[in-house]
Amino acid sequence: MSKQEHTLSNSSRYIPWTLFVFAIGAPFLAWISARGWSFAELRAIHIYPLLGLWAWCVMWTHYVYGALRVQRKDLKKNPLYSKVSEYVVLACLILHPGILAWNLWRSGDGLPPLSYMNYVGQSLRIFVFFGSISLFVFLSYEYFQRVKEKPAVVKNWKYISATQMMAMILIFFHGIQLGQHFGATWFRFLWINMGALLIPVFTILVLEEWLPEEKNKQ
Fold it and tell me: For residue 51, what pLDDT is reported?
């Protein structure tokens, strides 16, 4: 354990992990209840929707905790949580569309993007597009994270951050329109409220990133 982790307050240790348990647990309950609380005949194609929910919900914890840190200066970034949750998100982002693509290809439906479009039908294709654009944006963030010290990236980081927020919004609608587990009223209600909470969260984070620069220009 690093020296920085030793200096974390109890709140900085427990709040992000509490959010993580919620972000993993709530979608899992919706998923397993839709399966009649059974793991019988479980295949990869049955898991791919859950992975998509996990990706968005865990990313949601990053934003919520980030806004809390802005509001409460005693809260610090939790390095262990950041690393673990980022790997979870990355794995889910890759496996969610990957499992579906593999299953459609094996079924003779071809490869993405056409196989995805045909899978959902004409009226829902725009929401598949939302998911594809968001996947590209989220994966690009993995690259920018690794070169964030470069002057061009530092200068434009606020715009990179803004694209991530837009992707979160697109995935919110992608999920609610295409999600197979929104039949449960409680989970649809929860998803909508999690999405609504992002409005004040994004506002706090945008003001934190953009206002200092505006003040420096004055």
Answer: 96
Across the range 16-31, mean pLDDT stands at 97
Q: Write a three-state SS string for 32-68.
A: HHHCCCCCCCCCHHHHHHHHHHHHHHHHHHHHHHHHH
Handedness of CA 141, 143, 148, 151 (dihedral sign): negative
- Does the structure show a pLDDT above 50 at 2? no
CB atoms within 10 A of CB 93: 21
**Cβ atoms of 45 and 103 closer than 8 Å:** yes
Token pair, residue 5, equals: 């982790």
The residue type found at 47 is I
Give the count of alpha carbons within 13 A of 28, CB side only.
8
Q: What is the pTM of this model?
A: 0.90
Structure tokens at 133: 């654009």
- Options 3.10.105, 1.20.120, 2.60.40, 3.40.30; CATH for 3-217 is 1.20.120
Phi and psi dihedrals of 121, rounded to 5? 95, 165
- Residue 31 exposed, middle or buried by CB count within 10 Å (0-12, 13-18, 19+): buried
Half-sphere CA count of 169, side-chain side, radius 13 A: 11
